[in-house]
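Data availability (excerpt). The following record was deposited with the supplementary files.
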Amino acid sequence: MPQHSALRLENYPPFKSMNIKVLELDELWQRVRILLPLNSHNANPGGTVFGGAMSSLADPIAALACAKCFPDYTVWTKSLRVDFLRPGTDDLILQFDFPEDLRQEIETVLAEKGSYTPHFSYGFYRKDGTLCCQIGCEVAIRPADPDSHRLGFRNRET
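Predicted structure:
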């Protein structure tokens, strides 16, 4: 697991108070597993995981994965759909997978058209494997403006 990326994610200010823990993160962000513990910072009045915490954590993951795979482009979350299926009655694990065939499709479309808005599907699961929250995310991948460092994510790691 790339320790630098995992630590940056765990210490990112919006996530720090949630006490997330990166369980798995491969070099190209093709497989990401993040523990979102049920604690006093993440619980809603009903005692389950607050949907805003799930949404906040889910928001940048696909865009960060695309920024890692396509460093010459600027990327951002264009849309995020959050379907709460079951209550998060205990710790949740965000499971994101970036299929190789989708990565190749994105690469092909970017070479042909210069931009693309792929769709990703991932979710939050209880430790017993029950899907609690389904995430649908569209990521805008656009040519990078070398003069701007304010628009979207760019992979700045070497």
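Summary of structural features: The beta strands are 21-25, 31-36, 73-84, 92-97, 119-126, 131-143.
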